[in-house]
Amino acid sequence: MIPKRNFKLERIRRARKPESELQDVCEKYAALRNVETFHLPQILLNNAFSRRAAYGGEIWALREAAARVKGMPDLTLFFKGRYRMVELKTEIGKLSREQMRWLNRHPGACIRTFEDFKKYLDDFISEVEHAPGSAGGSLVSDGPTRPPEAGTENRGNP
Questions:
Q1: In 14, 41, 45, 104, which residue has its Cα 20 to 30 A from 147's Cα atom?
Q2: Does residue 144 come out as left (phi exceeding 0), alpha (psi in the -120 to 50 range) or beta?
């Protein structure tokens, strides 16, 4: 009898580095470039939204909260009042439906290699520094600046 092939195991073996190693290197590079990062650890989510932590009606609130953060990208990058979300995947990793939803609703990208992350982060920094009105932008003033009108606050990006 011929043994069954475990295709999932084979895919995992083909991945050169686990996502955790890629994330560690990316976070260190972001820190070197003075970009703040935020990562919501899975263990925190598992414990915060466990059924043991709630009673009665609280369970429904926990389920709703867990559904809202499900698929949140691995890293959120913050630089001079702007943000980008980054989902890190191995070369063979696949985005879940929830991860695609996050990346479609927020500025971000799926990154598979450190070289891609480095380019993405450098482009993000350059974009922010050269945007009109930013501290690293043009030395020529575009005129007086006004605070945004109520309800038109910039929620990350123009």
A1: 104
A2: beta
